[in-house]
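TL;DR need structure tokens for one chain.
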Amino acid sequence: MAGMLEYKCPACGAGIEWSPGAQNMECPYCGTVLTIDALQNYQEHIAQIKDEQTDWDKEGGTDWQPGETEGMRIYTCKSCGGEIVGDANMGATNCPYCNNPIVMTGQFAGDLRPDCVIPFKKTKEEAKAIYKKYLEGKKLLPRIFKDENHIDEIKGVYVPYWLFDADVEAYYHFKGTKVRTWSDRNYNYTETSYYSILRDGAMHFDKVPQDGSTRMPDDMMESLEPFDFSEAVDFRTAYLAGYMADRYDVTAEQSKERINQRVRTSTDEVMRSTMNGYVSLVPEQQNIRYASSTAHYALYPVWVLNTTWKDQKYTFAMNGQTGKFIGDLPVDKSLYWKNLLIRAAVIGGILYGASWLLYFI
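>> reply
TL;DR here they are.
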């Protein structure tokens, strides 16, 4: 004997049945009533949610052409292990990340050729000028830091980036509540309504970035964003002349989990923005599918600046396209506590004055 078909109630999850009295599908437990078409649409939507697909179709980068890397060498820092791409004529130099000497180790072997590059627009002189301006107005900066710290090295480095494009299909199932209150002469009333909310839609993500270097902290590179990809050009080795290029050590495959999370977070924000007027929204099921997806390998320009003060190294970075500057600075602890005590005294005085004012009112 064939098994009975069972449909789930969207509201409570129990089995929902055909009701001769209602001439619709009705849940015997919570009383939810649905038409057959509405229930069928719900079942199809839920079936879509259960089948998530977030695999990327194509990784970025291409193979180097014969002879294209003849003038390029790979240099490795003995201290931090960083691998830098430079030309064969590059003499003794320092690691742009830790400022220790770096040495040549060999030729290219199995590396991918970048698809595109954003050329440097900001010069080394502009990086120095922006660094000096960056120090201005920092109230907790030690007063002698500007005079005693010295710039050890400024290096223009092309940082490897993976850029992901994706056409996304999203399917969401939320439980929502709305609350209505009113009163009459005798009672206050509260009515809570529960909703099963289905959403699906398609959206396109273009050039979602993720740096491919472990030597450049993710938070630092995200702080340097955005880069204007409209100024990107097809990669040519000539763009590396006079600069270094960081060798990627994080593959596109290894970057996918972080990219998937960024895509999922953005998709969730878009979906939630379509559900207004609910007191609460609880996700029941959600699904993202990549209808098509590709990854590109790009080089983005960054000026890395190292300074030393009191035997401690400080690293700063500047977006080589826009001039956006970031970095950590030392804090004068005596100034910090002095400012804290002044603020506490001011707030205490205000509260004391307010208490006396209330006393006489």
